[in-house]
Amino acid sequence: MKLDNKEFGFESFSSEMEELKNEKHFDYLVTIVGEDFGTDEGLGCIYILENTNTHERCSVKQLAKTVGTEYVIPTVSKLWADADLLEREVFDFFGIKFLGHPDMRRLFLRNDFSGYPLRKDFNMDPERNMYSTEDDIEIDTTTEWYLTDSGDLKSVSHSLFTDDDFVVNIGPQHPSTHGVLRLQTILDGETVKHIYPHLGYIHRGIEKLCENFTYPQTLALTDRMNYLSAMMHRHALVGVIEEGMGIELSDRIMYIRTIMDELQRIDNHLLYTACCAQDLGALTAFLYGMRDREHVLNVMEETTGGRLIQNYYRIGGLQADIDPNFVSNVKQLCKYLRPMVQEYLDVFGDNVITHKRFEGIGTMNEADCINYGVTGPAGRASGWKNDVRKYHPYAVYDKVDFEEITLTHGDSMDRYYCHIQEIYQSLNIIEQLIDNIPTGEFYLKQKPIIKVPEGQWYFSVEGASGEFGVYLDSRGDKSAYRMKFRPMGLTLVGAMDKMLRGQKIADLVTTGAALDFVIPDIDR
Asked: How many angstroms separate the CA atoms of 500 and 175, rounded?
């Protein structure tokens, strides 16, 4: 969607955002984009919101107010819970202080990092000491900023822990965190009281790289964020560029992209069911999922040449046409997989131990899922209808018949079942398309140097674990002025504190397994 930003002004920003949330029902905060708009406007944020009743979306632009050398914006974390981590991310990379936010600490970078790397004037000289190689400084207090009546910027400190708190670190090197994620967990005996996520252990500065790469050069970066949603991630990136350039794709391209996206979704969900079993100690079910995932990768590899990293979508189409055996191999795969899915339930999903470990664990109702931005199967397990393919269709999802899987309990068991049922829906989509792929071009040739006209766009897809979106601010050059990725997993991890308060430490592992996050997607 091309953004047509509302602008409210600093003084009325809080009241206008409250009206959007409470009176106009824009109850889903999709993302917050921090940006350095240049010398004329300075720093600020773009807020993308959705009305979950009508699925209408809007965007709000708010410039930061300068107080001395500092930049400030009122927090919206009291309106939308997912703004907690989203605002901390903006503070981390731009240095904007959100007034009234109770936890203004860095989220991805080290506490001793010097400067704010996504500002345009950030000094990238490697000789400058941006951080040390010593152990990072542990902070046991956080800062809340506010403006006095006279307009001065003041702060108050809050303690993260009490003297009686028992703090355990789950990660950053722990097999059940599915990557380098650190969950600083406060316990009362074995009961979880609070979880503070620490991110960025494999942060690679992808959004900063995009400002210096040409558009074709940025494509390889998305494959490496969530390697289990590589097709969908790149689909979002090429989609926002193609929308900005006004490229109209052939039906053949859109059919093939839709099929490839669904093959990638099956790939993810098979590994998901396998890893859920592994995290609970069920090795046999893990091997079943890995066995069948290989068949999916075999089919994709014949066309894309890759298994983990799928370097296939290009701006204007596809890297190559489908393999001559692609259609027949996909049909054989669908025929093979359908009965196999029941095996996962027979061995693991409907096992009495699985039910005891998953049922009633990590429960979250629909309203809280919306408030925390818990999209994808994790949110649909609570009844929230949030499938991007249905409500913001792209490719040929508006031409196929499939069911949006929603369940009611909102616990880890329903999240698992939601993934299982989505495998069947992906097979349904593929089977509707595979015999009807139109003839035509698989790639529409572009100019040697691709430039996107001036403007701001946001394009999202339904990734394997939720909504994945790309925000693009173009100034008409061959590189993006600002590119921001909405990761699927950031809001999932941000909701774990809400999900797990009052539950046992062992439930943290099962809840994380059922949420299906991948750390490179979060860290970027």
From this structure: 19
At residue 27, the pLDDT reads 93
Tokens of 110: 């080290």
Question: How distant, in Å, are the alpha carbons of 266, 289, 513 from that of 279?
Answer: 20, 13, 7
Length of the chain: 524
Residue 176 shares a structural domain with residue 264: no
Nearest to 272, CA basis, from 374, 377, 202, 408: 377
What pLDDT is attached to residue 289? 87
Q: Kindly tell me the burial class for residue 312, based on how many C-beta atoms sit within 10 Å of its own C-beta (0-12, 13-18, 19 or more).
A: buried
User: Do the bridges between strand 466-474 and strand 482-486 make them parallel or antiparallel, or are there none, so unpaired?
Assistant: antiparallel
Do 181 and 66 share a structural domain? no
Q: Where are the beta strands (DSSP E) in 37-103?
A: 43-50, 57-63, 65-67, 70-74, 96-99
Question: Tokens 């040449």 map to which residue?
Answer: 305
CA-wise closest residue to 60 among 93, 89, 31? 31
- Scored b (16 or more CB within 10 A) or e, 144-157 reads bbeeeeeeebeeee
Check whether residue 391 and residue 291 sit in a common domain: yes
Cα 49 to Cα 159, 370, 372: the distances in Å are 32, 11, 13
Q: Confirm whether 243 is domain-assigned.
A: no
- What residues pair up with 482 in beta bridges, in sequence order? 473
Range of the domain at 148: 5-123+141-152
Find the CATH number of the domain harbouring 15: 3.30.460.80
Q: Are residues 82 and 182 in the same domain?
A: no
> pLDDT averaged over consecutive 10-residue blocks of the chain (524 residues)?
92 94 94 92 95 95 92 94 94 94 91 88 77 79 90 89 88 75 90 91 90 92 87 94 94 95 94 88 87 92 88 92 94 93 89 90 93 94 94 94 93 93 95 93 91 94 93 94 93 92 90 88 86
Look at residue 283 in the predicted model and tell me its pLDDT.
87
